Amino acid sequence: MKQHIEETLELLSKRGIKKPKIGLILGSGLGVLADEIQHSIKVPYQDIPHFPISTVAGHAGQLVFGELEGQSVIAMSGRFHYYEGYSLEAVTYPVRVFKALGVEQLIVTNAAGGVNTDFNAGDLMIISDHINNMYQNPLMGANDPELGERFPDMSSAYSEKLRSLAKNEAAKLQLNVQEGVYVANTGPCYETPAEVRMIRTIGGDAVGMSTVPEVIVARHSNMEVLGISCISNMAAGILPQPLTHSEVIETTEAVKADFMELVKSIIREMI
Ligand code: HPA
């Protein structure tokens, strides 16, 4: 892995990518935030040695480095999903690269189904904690102690400090944000109504198909993490209608202005 990371860094440094402080992983429909990055250097995933290639329509697939709200950032516009057939090691490889570049704080975003019936499609949710329901873990296999501990602590995976910053900024913008537990399933099918009831029973407020692997690796790498879900739909069985990917995209389209304002104001205040 270290050899691979070095080769990846070599290409990124050749393209002019320096030392970003904040990493961003932009979920379905939320990649537009990358367009706000100033003095940007864009590197398509297919140019990057050892990066997997994204296959899902609607996921752009490039790294964008530059300045956002006065901070040095690097964004993944489009992420890799387990359901696409990649190993979790491949899914989380970019997080390893972020760490090696010098990223200290990671903001992870996604579109998710609302499981908590107090939520509405279009809400933003600050992730307070997660449940890994993928029955797979990106840290399985030999552990390289230079990358992190064998048994990393997950008791405060989502930084208390960044969560309260996020809530403060939301209040300043008069955005009503939710807070809750994100449950990651493998996908790619959406849940059954019975699975959604199970997720609610085990303590989930939102459900999606990403984020948890990246957060596990970010914590293994000792990065500070903030997670934000866009509740793009109510999960299966809550409303009398089937779920569609186009609904997910439409809702994220409708809230992306709020989402971008929120993330930008959080970044402005991050220290
Ligand atoms: N379930 C799982 N993943 C999702 C959903 C959902 O309802 N909406 C967006 N991503």
Automatic annotation (TrEMBL):
Q: Which InterPro entries match?
A: Nucleoside_phosphorylase_d, Nucleoside_phosphorylase_sf, Pur_Nuc_Pase_Ino/Guo-sp, Purine_phosphorylase, Purine_phosphorylase-2_CS
Q: Name one GO biological process term.
A: nucleoside metabolic process
Give the reactions, separated by semicolons, that this protein catalyses. Answer: a purine 2'-deoxy-D-ribonucleoside + phosphate = a purine nucleobase + 2-deoxy-alpha-D-ribose 1-phosphate
Known EC number? 2.4.2.1
Q: Mind telling me which GO cellular component terms the entry cites?
A: cytoplasm
Q: Which Pfam families match?
A: PNP_UDP_1
- Residue spans crossing the bilayer: none
Pathway membership, UniProt: Purine metabolism; purine nucleoside salvage
| Ranges of residues in domain Nucleoside phosphorylase | 21-268
Q: Which CDD domains does the entry link to?
A: PNP-EcPNPII_like (cd09009)
Q: Which UniProt keywords apply?
A: Glycosyltransferase, Phosphoprotein, Transferase
For phosphate, which residues are the binding ones? S28, H59, R79, F80, H81, A111, S210
Residues that hold a purine D-ribonucleoside according to the record: E191, N233
Q: Which GO terms describe its molecular function?
A: purine-nucleoside phosphorylase activity
Q: Which PANTHER family match?
A: METHYLTHIOADENOSINE/PURINE NUCLEOSIDE PHOSPHORYLASE, PURINE NUCLEOSIDE PHOSPHORYLASE-RELATED
* Similarity-based family: Belongs to the PNP/MTAP phosphorylase family.
Q: What does this protein do?
A: The purine nucleoside phosphorylases catalyze the phosphorolytic breakdown of the N-glycosidic bond in the beta-(deoxy)ribonucleoside molecules, with the formation of the corresponding free purine bases and pentose-1-phosphate. Cleaves guanosine, inosine, 2'-deoxyguanosine and 2'-deoxyinosine.
On subunit structure and binding partners, the annotation says:
Homotrimer.
Name listed for the protein in its UniProt record: Purine nucleoside phosphorylase
- Organism expressing this protein natively: Alkalihalobacillus trypoxylicola
